[in-house]
Amino acid sequence: MIEAWSPQDVYAAEAALDEELASGELMARAVEGLVEVVAARISQLDAETVIALVGPGNNGADALYAVAHLAEAGVACAAALDRGRAHEGALEAARAAGVVLVSGAEAIEDIAEADIVLDGVLGLGGRPGLPGEAADWVRAIPDDAHVIAVDLPSGQAADGSAFDPDGVLADETVTFSVAKPVHLLPPTEQACGTLTVVDIGLTFETEPAVVRLGHDDVADLWPVPGPDDDKYSRGVLGVVAGGEDYSGAAVLAVTAAVEAGAGMVRYVGTPTPEGLVRAAVPEAVHGEGRVQAWVVGPGLDVRASRREAVAQLAVARRALAGEEPVLVDAGGLDLVDDEVIEARRELPTLLTPHAGELARLLTRLGSGPRARSRTEVERSAVEAEPVRHARALAERTGMTVLLKGSTTLVVPADPGSPVRSQADAPAWLATAGAGDVLSGLVGTLLAAGLDPADAGALGALVHGVAADRVGAGGPVRALAVAHGIPHAVAHLLARH
Ligand SMILES: NC(=O)C1=CN([C@@H]2O[C@H](COP(=O)(O)OP(=O)(O)OC[C@H]3O[C@@H](n4cnc5c(N)ncnc54)[C@H](OP(=O)(O)O)[C@@H]3O)[C@@H](O)[C@H]2O)[C@@H](O)CC1
Ligand SMILES: Nc1ncnc2c1ncn2[C@@H]1O[C@H](COP(=O)(O)OP(=O)(O)O)[C@@H](O)[C@H]1O
C-alpha cells in the first residue's frame, strides 16, 4: 500500500521531528537518500554531467547539497541559480565542492547539454507558476536528459489538484518519508515518473490523504471463503442490467460477478438480455429475490416503456429504496435524484461514473450539499480536476464516488476518509464493456460485505491486473477480462 499525506500534514510532522533532531539532520537524511538515487542513475546511464535547478527554498537546498556531494565524489556538476538566490549553507557546500554555479544564458546552455537534470526549483512550498528564470530552465531541458525531480516536479501542485504542462515532467521523483498527493493523483501523477520514497523518519498520527492498494494488499481484503461458508453467506448479488438496446452489458456484468466469486447472482432484465444471460452464464438465477447487494444500471434504459422494461425499472427503484448496498452505474445513474439521495444518506452506495457521466450528474444535480450551484459541467473540466469533481458529487449525494479512467479514483462520502487511487490497468482496457465488467466485480465485493471504498479500490486493482494478464501486452476485450478474474485473484492471493 502506498499512502500519501497532505502537504500540511507533512510540514507538521517535519516540524515535530525537527524539534527532536540536531539542526539540519532532517535535510541531511533527505540529501543522503537523494544522492544515492542520483549516483545509481549516473552509473546506470553512463551519465557525465549533472545540473541542479535550484529554487529559493529547502527544495533547492536539497538539490544543491546533493550536487555538492556528487561533485566531491568526482562527478561533473553544475547548479543553475536565479540571481544567486539559494539556501546559504547549501551554496557554501556547493562552492567548496567545486560545483559550477551558473545563471542567465550560461545556465540555459548547461541545461541543454546535461545528461541528468535534478529539479529542485520548487517542492512542497511551491505555488502555481515557476519563479523567475525557472520557466526558461525547464524549457531548455533536452528531451534525452534524464530528469529527476526532488520531492515533486516543480510547477505541479503538491496536493495533486492541477497539472501544469509548462512545469517539470520528470522521469523519476525522489520524495521524502511518504508520498504526497501529487504523486498518486491524476492529473499530476503523469508528471512524476517512477517514485522513490526515502525514509527520513517522519511519523503521522493523522489519516493519509490518498491511499493506493498494492498487489500485496489483496490477500488482506479479498473475501476468501472458509469451510463454514455456503453460497448465501458468501453474498448474493442482484444485478439489474441490460435492456433491448444494450443487452451485452448484462452478460458482461453477470459474468464478471460469477467469475469474481459471488455466492450467487440474481439477474433482473428484459427478454433479450435475459436470453443471452441464460445462454452465457448458466450459474445465474433469474428474477428478484433476497440479496446482500445490488448492481443497478449497466446497459439499463431508464426511458424504455415496454412492459418488461417498466417492471425491470421498478426493481431498480426498489433496490435504490432498499437498505442493501448498491452500486449504481451507467443508466442507473439517471435514477439518482433527490429522493434517492435522501433515502440512501446513511446506506452504503457506490456511484461508478466515467468522466462524462460525472459531468452530466453534476450538471443535473448541482454541486454542494444543497445543490447551491447549478451550472453546466463539461467532461473536460472533470478530466482536468477529477478529484475536485468526484468530491463534489460525493458531497452532493452522501455516496461514495468511483470515477473511472486510466487512474480510477474512489472518493468516499466521508470527507475525512482518504481518497483511493488505483492505476493498475493497461490502456488497452479503454474498451466498450470494461465498465460493465467492473460493476459486476465490485458488486460481488459489496455483496461479500466490503465497504464501498474498499470494494471500489480492490475491484479496480483486480480489474486492471486481470486485463494486464489476459492481454499480456496486447489488446484485450471486456469479456476476456471478466473470464480472467479468477486467475488474477489466484495470482494475487498467492503472493501472501
Ligand atoms: N517537509 C519535509 O519533510 C522535508 C522537506 N525537505 C525539502 O523541503 C522542501 C520544502 O521546502 P520549502 O518549504 O522551503 O518550500 P520550497 O518548495 O522549496 O519553496 C518555497 C520557496 O519558494 C518560493 N515560491 C514558492 N512558489 C513560488 C512561485 N510560484 N513563484 C516564486 N516563488 C515561489 C517561496 O516564496 P515565498 O512563499 O516566501 O514567497 C519560498 O521561498 C520539500 O519539498 C523538500 O524538498 C527536506 O529537505 C527535508 C524533509
Ligand atoms: N486509458 C485507460 N487506461 C486504463 N484503463 C482505462 C482507460 N480508460 C478507461 N479505462 C477503464 O476502462 C473501463 C471503462 O469503463 P466505461 O467507460 O464505463 O466503459 P463501458 O461503459 O463501455 O463499460 C473503466 O474501468 C476504466 O477505468
From TrEMBL:
Root EC class: lyase
Residues annotated for AMP binding in this entry: 404-408, 435
Residues that, per the record, bind (6S)-NADPHX: 249, 299, 354, 436
Domain YjeF N-terminal: 10-208
GO molecular function: ADP-dependent NAD(P)H-hydrate dehydratase activity; ATP binding; metal ion binding; NAD(P)HX epimerase activity
Keyword Amino-acid biosynthesis: no
Names of the cofactor(s): K(+); Mg(2+)
Catalytic activity: (6R)-NADHX = (6S)-NADHX; (6S)-NADHX + ADP = AMP + phosphate + NADH + H(+); (6S)-NADPHX + ADP = AMP + phosphate + NADPH + H(+); (6R)-NADPHX = (6S)-NADPHX
Coiled coil ranges: none
TM stretches of this protein: none
Superkingdom, taxonomy of origin: Bacteria
EC numbers, comma separated: 4.2.1.136
Swiss-Prot/TrEMBL keywords: ATP-binding, Isomerase, Lyase, Metal-binding, Multifunctional enzyme, NAD, NADP, Nucleotide-binding, Potassium
Presence of the UniProt keyword Lyase in the record: yes
Cofactor binding remark: Binds 1 potassium ion per subunit.
GO terms for biological process, alphabetical: metabolite repair; nicotinamide nucleotide metabolic process
HAMAP family assigned: NADHX_dehydratase
Subunit annotation: Homotetramer.
Similarity annotation: Belongs to the NnrD/CARKD family.
Cited function: Catalyzes the dehydration of the S-form of NAD(P)HX at the expense of ADP, which is converted to AMP. Together with NAD(P)HX epimerase, which catalyzes the epimerization of the S- and R-forms, the enzyme allows the repair of both epimers of NAD(P)HX, a damaged form of NAD(P)H that is a result of enzymatic or heat-dependent hydration.
Protein name, UniProt field: ADP-dependent (S)-NAD(P)H-hydrate dehydratase
Gene: nnrD
